[in-house]
């Protein structure tokens, strides 16, 4: 806690003068371009990884970057917190992008991989069931990259499954079909600091270097947008 308190003072004294005008403007409204869904893991820091500033990202974090699927009526089959964030981002903020970002060495994916009962964590056990489809897919279809550890193989597939869960929400599906919303799957390797994007053509996660970034940006700016 001491580190947090001292950090507040450091921000106030050194950083706030640089952001004062931006915060004054943001106090009236926010217009983020993307909803960024990622894990609660302390090693995953969205604003650091994508070099964004206050007001750029609408962020939703939870254990395992999971999205409970919706019913045909658009009602979440799990915690309504995630569904509420999706509704607000799509209907109110009108974001143009939703990113689901998983990561290496994810504790949630390790728990799902080992399938060990957590007798003292009934809520966590119930929550992690939203990754069961990813575990089933890994077991029956195999990994996207067999060089990875099993829990990292699961983590990558889990990103794709959660995107599929997003598409069960009518408001998301409608906006995607209309070309007003793009869903992307990313995966962060903590050990190397590299971010990867899923490419449907190669059915793999490819590192986002300068060349890949140019291709992705060009695609996002294409006719579908």
TrEMBL record:
The keyword Lyase applies. This is Carbonic anhydrase. PANTHER family: CARBONIC ANHYDRASE (PTHR11002:SF76). Binds 1 zinc ion per subunit. SUPFAM superfamilies: beta-carbonic anhydrase, cab (SSF53056). Gene3D superfamilies: Carbonic anhydrase (3.40.1050.10). InterPro entries: Beta_CA_cladeB, Carbonic_anhydrase, Carbonic_anhydrase_CS, Carbonic_anhydrase_sf. It catalyses: hydrogencarbonate + H(+) = CO2 + H2O. The lineage of its organism: Bacteria, Pseudomonadati, Pseudomonadota, Betaproteobacteria, Burkholderiales. It comes from Caballeronia humi. The keyword Metal-binding applies. Reversible hydration of carbon dioxide. Its EC number is 4.2.1.1.
